[in-house]
Design a protein that fits this description.
Pfam families: GerE, Response_reg. The protein is α/β, with parallel strands linked by helices. It has eleven helices and six strands. It has two domains: 130 residues, Response regulator (Rossmann fold), CATH 3.40.50; 66 residues, Arc Repressor Mutant, subunit A, CATH 1.10.10.10. A six-stranded parallel sheet has the order 2-1-3-4-5-6, sandwiched between helices. Helix 2 packs parallel to helix 3, helix 4 crosses helix 6 and helix 7 crosses helix 9. The chain is elongated and about 65 Å long.
Length: 215
């Protein structure tokens, strides 16, 4: 597919970064059909224009890039999403993988890297910035694989833990004993290979709350 045949929208709340990305894409013959400076405007453009690719900053006013992606997909938008961020933490990588985002680039990346990402994404592949170290990506993959080991009952309990609901209230809501809840929690801790004492599961669930609730 020629560059001019790839329709793109871009969204970033930093005017200089938005302008710079727009100019780089246009100068390389990409068809940029829309720009947005916040998450709400980005969502409106997605619903209206349905581009092939959307570049979204993660941290934007009104709606984050992740929120925009989830809401656009709920509306049936088939756009391939590439997120742009300064964040390298495993929790962000995990959330991107959970949302099955096509690409994850860092704002420090060169346009050469951006072009490689576009090519990969258009070909139906997933692309993560070469600036990510293998350990971060491997850690994210391992955590997601561990979540897939949970039974439906364990996953439901984990979601309630992430919402900071107590064992007593979880037991009441599910109609089972507190002792059964404690056993489930122990199994979850073992499957996720968590360490750090009795609060390990709660702390991990709160850190990864958005990922857990989207599964």
């Amino acid at each position: 597919m020629a560059n001019k045949d790839v329709s793109i929208i871009i969204a970033d709340d930093h005017p200089i970064l938005l302008k710079g990305l727009y100019e780089e894409l246009v100068s390389n013959d990409y068809n940029v059909i829309g720009r947005a400076a916040d998450g709400m405007n980005a969502l409106e453009l997605l619903l209206k224009l349905r581009p092939d690719i959307a570049f979204l900053d993660i941290d934007m006013p009104f709606l984050s890039g992740f929120d925009v992606i989830k809401m656009a997909r709920d509306k049936g938008v088939n756009t391939r999403f590439i997120v742009l961020s300064f964040h390298k933490e495993a929790s962000y990588i995990n959330r991107a993988k959970t949302l099955q985002i096509s690409g994850y680039l860092l704002k420090e990346d060169s346009f050469f890297e951006i072009a490689r990402c576009i090519e990969a994404v258009i070909s139906g592949n997933t692309y993560f910035s070469s600036s990510f170290d293998h350990h971060s990506l491997d850690q994210a993959n391992e955590e997601l694989r561990s979540l897939q080991l949970l039974t439906p009952s364990e996953l439901r309990i984990l979601k309630l833990v992430a919402r900071q609901i107590s064992n007593n209230n979880i037991a009441e809501e599910l109609g089972i004993s507190v002792r059964t809840i404690e056993k489930h929690r122990s199994n979850i801790i073992s499957k996720l290979n968590l360490k750090g004492g009795p609060n390990a599961l709660t702390n991990w669930a709160l850190t990864n709350k958005k990922i857990i609730l989207e599964i």
